[in-house]
User: Which sequence fits this backbone?
């Protein structure tokens, strides 16, 4: 069973091995969170041209040297044997690894997600039904539109102000709980 966790990836090295559609999707996911990654492949699909200035691309076949200093590794090649080597190496060396074609060899998976500013909604079926994850993601995207980015930011600012101004913990908690019932305009007035 997988344990849900949000990982601070700012100061860790992330490497993706593979240059196809899955590798591209994984790379763009990391970019969504402001993380530049290294992608290693002998060949890259054309879509990588869109992000080539935002990632480090290495034109080469897989070699352990490319993942030795990485904390997170994604094995996304179209070669099951290479993916197996990557997964085995990472598991032996205490690295987080997602082997896209081998759930058992992976020690983490990446859920589908909806990101609205600091609001992050994750959807996972444990790898059992990616299509169900995609369906739920579409539903959440409709329910939680782009306006939630600003809403979450305002909630955070209002919460900080309440904490700073209220010494009484009970009163502080009570006031913070009421924030989620306020509109964006009402929150702006609180700040």
Assistant:
């Amino acid at each position: 069973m997988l344990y849900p966790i949000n990982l601070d990836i700012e100061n860790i090295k992330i490497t993706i091995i593979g240059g196809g559609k899955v590798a591209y999707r994984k790379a763009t996911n990391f970019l969504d969170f402001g993380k530049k990654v290294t992608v290693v492949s002998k060949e890259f699909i054309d879509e990588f041209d869109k992000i080539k200035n935002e990632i480090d691309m290495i034109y080469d076949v897989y070699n352990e040297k490319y993942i030795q200093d990485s904390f997170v590794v994604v094995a996304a090649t179209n070669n099951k044997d290479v993916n197996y080597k990557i997964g085995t190496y990472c598991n032996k060396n205490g690295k987080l690894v997602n082997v896209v074609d081998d759930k058992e060899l992976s020690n983490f998976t990446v859920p589908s997600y909806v990101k609205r500013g600091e609001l992050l909604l994750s959807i996972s079926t444990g790898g059992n039904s990616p299509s169900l994850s995609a369906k739920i993601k579409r539903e959440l995207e409709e329910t939680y539109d782009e306006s939630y980015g600003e809403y979450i930011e305002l909630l955070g600012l209002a919460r900080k102000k309440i904490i700073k101004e209220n010494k009484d913990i009970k009163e502080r908690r009570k006031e913070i709980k009421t924030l989620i019932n306020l509109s964006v305009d009402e929150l702006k007035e609180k700040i």
